[in-house]
Each structure stands twice: as C-alpha cells, then as structure tokens.
Amino acid sequence: MEKKVRTRIAPSPTGDPHVGTAYIALFNLAFANSNGGDFILRIEDTDQNRYTEGSEQMIFDALHWLGLDYAEGPDVGGEYGPYRQSERFHLYGDYAKKLVEQGGAYYCFCTQDRLDKLRERQKAMGKAPGYDGHCRSLTSEEIQAKLDAGEPYVIRLKMPYEGDTIIHDRLRGDIVFENNKIDDQVLLKADGFPTYHLANVVDDHLMGITHVIRAEEWIASTPKHIQLYKAFGWEQPEFIHMPLLRNADRTKISKRKNPVSLNWYKEEGYLKEGIINFLGLMGYSFGENKEIFSLQEFIDNFNIDKVSLGGPVFDLVKLGWVNNQHMRMKDIDELTKLAIPFFKELGYVKDEVSEKEYKALVKIVEILRESAQTLKEIAKESTVYFEDTFELPVVTEDMNKKERKSVEKLNESILDPVGKESIKLFIKKLEAWEKDEFTIEEAKDILHSTLEEIGEGPAKVYMPLRAVITGQARGADLYNVLFIIGKTRTLNRMKTMIKKYNVL
Questions:
Q1: Which residue ranges make up each domain of the chain?
Q2: Does residue 255 carry a catalytic annotation?
Q3: Where does 1-74+243-329 sit in CATH, by number?
Q4: Which of 502, 429, 426, 435 is nearest to 466 (CA)?
Q5: What pLDDT digit, counting tens, does each position of 347-391 carry?
Q6: Which of 79, 138, 246, 271 is the most exposed place for a label (fewest CB within 10 A)?
Q7: pTM, entire model
C-alpha cells in the first residue's frame, strides 16, 4: 500500500515571517493537496539564542492570512504532535545516544581551544575547515573514563570515509557527494540541545514526512541527513530542492536589497491573492502564457515536475502588476473594506464609517484600483477627494518637457478670459443646484451644460475648473470629484482658490 503523502515546513521563530517561508509553504501545500496528502507546520525553536518573542504567532497569522492552511501544527493540533521542537526536547538526546550505541555516531570531547587551533591550522594549509575525527578512535574504556569524569562532550555523526552519498533529487536528478569531504556533523551539543540536522531528521521520521520540499540552500546538508537515515535504519523521504528566490543581481533574496517580511507586504496593502499568485510564478509556469490565477487554480494545476530551476527573481515591479490584476478582479465591496484601514491610517476616515462615506470610498477604490498596485497606494492617491486646501503646482527643474507644459497650461487657464468665464458660470450653476449631492450622470450633465454655454473646447473650459477644484493638471475626472465631494465642498474649494490666486 502506497504511503499517504505528507509534507511540511519547519520555520524558526527568529523574527518576522519571511517571504521564503510562504514560497516553500505554497509548494509543499500544493504538492500535498494535489496528491491527496497532508501539509503540516512544525516550529523549529531549539535555537534559544535566536528565538524572538511573538515570532511564532506571527508565523501562524501570516500563513493563515495567505490561506496556506496546514492540517497539523502547534495551533491546530494533530496526532503527530507536539509540533514545537522545544516540546520534543527529550527525544533528541535519546536518539543521539541510540545512534552512538548502533555505531552511527560517537562522543567527542574536544575542547573549543583545540577546535579553534585545528581550524587555524587547516586555514594556514589551505584546507577546508572541518573536524579531523580525533575522537573517533577513542576506546570504549577511554570514553567511559571521560564520561565518569564529567568531561563535557558533543555527539557527532560518523560519516563514512569512503564512497559517495547520492541525493536522488526529484527536480535535479542524482547529486553525488564524496563522503571523505563531508564533516562529522555535531548532532547533540554540549548543552544537550540538538543541532538542526538531528532534530530535523528525527522529527521528519516520527511525523511520517514522505517528501521534503525545501530551498536549494539545504542541498549541502542533505548527505548528512541521508547518512542519518541510514544509520538509524529508517526509510528516507524523497528530497525536492526548490530554486532560491533571488534579487535582481541573482544573489539570494535578503532584506538588504528587498523587503522579505510578510508583515511588510501586508502592511503595504498587497492582497494575499497577489502574493500567492506571485510566489506561484516563482519557478512554475501554467503554460499558455497564463500568469494570473487563484490558490485553488494553482493547486488544481500543480505538477512538481514542472518546477523550473532557473533561479526566480523577486521583482517588486512584477509583484505590483500581479497585485493590480487581483485588485481589479476582486469584488468592489470586499476590496473597499480591505482598503478602509489604509484610509484611516491617513486620517481620511474615522473609526466609524458612515453610509455616505462608504459610498464615496467604494467609488474612490473603483477608480483608483485600475492603476494602483496596492491598497496603500489607493489611499495615498486619493488625496484629491479628501484634502480641500491645496496649491497650484509650480514648474520645477526635475520636470520633463511634457510635465512642465501641462503645469504651465493649468496656471495660465485661470487667468484666461474663457477660463474666468467658465469658473463664474460653473459657480452659478452649483449655487442653483438644490441638493448637496450629485449622481455621476448629474455631475456629467452640469459639466456638459457649462461647456455648451461657454461655446469653447473642453480644454478651455475644463482646465480652469480642474485648477480650482483639484489643483491638478491631470488625474481624477471632474464628474467623479463632484460625485464624491458634493456641492458644498466643491464651492468652498473654488472660492478659496479664487481668493488665493485673485482669479476673478
């Protein structure tokens, strides 16, 4: 009977959750779900020096936010728990000593001073640093004497000196390592804590992990893991090493060159659908030029053998485009509700949003989502609808020719006789308007009637109106501004600008 597929991610709670964790989690989830298996979360928190308070909860929150839901984990339980390594601590020492008894590992009593001198000597000789196997030759009597004397020790893996260890990687084929070039890895430290290698292998075995899907940076460690499986007499999982996310210069993605915190992307207003879609494109292709898809579509289409090893570039421009596509596809009410916290952050709305305000926000979001890349950008670009006090733009040295000409025309328009006449007539029409609100069609009608009565082209009439209503040479359609801010605010803006610039 074929084993049920079980995959996992095992992040360490050492800071903000990393985009790389979400990337690897996505592919583990997709592989498990597309094969009728289970995807689990394990927290590897044995490195207490790097542990960060609150980081574990942030991992839970980030994965749940993205929809990367695991069948088992510290916060959801499961029959293979506990799912925190700190709660499994008692297991690792027992397994390390069992390995010593079976001849697959040994006690090492070398002091830090000896190891430092060994490293310096190897460096001076141009050799790769590594343990020299000094304690492998100790007799059982010597070992017992040292143990009885209470000498501190570590337990090391006994790597074979001869032959090769071969990784049968699903994506990369066979990767061959010469055993005599692989260090005798420390498995259990002097303080009794396991190293990553021991805890990882013991936990994967006890949790029934059938496929280890992880980043390619772990390839160099995999021969040690394979030897551990062999030493214990356990069946090893299938290894699948994913391509690393990279910066534009092909280096491994890092916070020095790219934001790597999932919290940052959420706080910037990226949709979970946009991030998942973008991460799915990292090393995977649907074919037929399909670039926009949902998490479920990704899972339904998924085939691990189609992963490309080219080294995906984490391109924020591409992420912005992908996120924009999902903002445009999303239900407008849902998108508006997601955007409201960003409007609140800028002080544009209060905690309690009125029905009238919400109606205006829906229209603002509907307009700005066409070009904005994030929810935060929608809020930041909505200034024209919220700030009634503004200045006309001025020409600056960094403007290109087109921008300079546009600003000059805007400023000239309010001094032009036709511009002044247009402003006067429009104010007259607004003051005669009996309501404070406009529908989109009513706003269009009042603008068109002004244009017809003046009898000039749209640029001559609408440019000065734009100047005194928005202070912008281009941007929001005037009928949308009227619809959103209403009659009173429009009149107040116009009269303020007329006085400020001595227009009439």
A1: 1-74+243-329, 89-242, 331-385, 401-501
A2: yes
A3: 3.40.50.620
A4: 426
A5: 999 989 999 999 999 999 999 999 999 999 999 999 999 999 999
A6: 79
A7: 0.92
